Amino acid sequence: MKNFIRYLLQKTLSFKNYLFLFSLYSIRTIEAGKYEREFLHFIKIIKGNGIILDIGANIGITAAPLAKHHPGAQIHAFEPISENFSALQRVVNYLKLNNVKLFNIALGSEDGNLKMIMPVRGNSRMQGLSKAYEEGAGEKGVIYDVPLKKLDHIYPFETNITAIKIDVENFELEVLRGSVEVLKRNKPTIYAELWENDNRTKVFELLKNIGYNSFTFDLQSETLQPVTIREGLPAGNFFFIPA
């Protein structure tokens, strides 16, 4: 039913207008505290007025609250998919978020190009699930070829990156592998959505070796709890804080 309603909205409004309106609706829902309580906690614990990176900014649903809650900071939002990026630009302009800088690229462990896919389910396009394309997976969707950069090459000397939000649909390990020097110099607080697979275990190991402790957010007490790495730990959002 949700896919059918989404399809009707995309067809009736046009895809670009659907993205814009859905972003505004989601931003207001977050600001009302109705969902994404983990993300709201991440916003609260960011310190200072440095640079906050929104990696996988999509259509601006997280970039806008970051910009509003930290007006003295600079939000650098990275989104490679063209339609998502256009919606992100439109949202930033509409909300007059003057402290947001946009990057129409993907981030990874090397410089080059990356093939990505925006999945299609039930005739509706799933912009929030856009991800790196896997050859032979047989997934239906719109294919894109996007520029790929290492974060270490974008910020070779920066020492004022205070926080990083990453949501790139199981590509987080590649992003972090290309960000090691940035992480070592800046030690930003990291908020990442991680799937339940080997990549997540490798992310825990990589960040532990750099000097990070990993946490989950307990919704009952609204506090961070240390992660016990074990089989069956569900997919979700994780906090990584320098020791």
UniProtKB/TrEMBL annotation:
NCBIfam families registered for this protein in UniProt: fkbM_fam (TIGR01444)
Species name: Dyadobacter linearis
Protein name per the record: Methyltransferase FkbM domain-containing protein
Domain of life per record: Bacteria
Positions of the Methyltransferase FkbM domain: 54-194
Gene3D superfamilies per UniProt: Vaccinia Virus protein VP39
InterPro entries, alphabetized: FkbM_mtfrase (IPR006342), SAM-dependent_MTase (IPR052514), SAM-dependent_MTases_sf (IPR029063)
A Pfam family assignment: Methyltransf_21
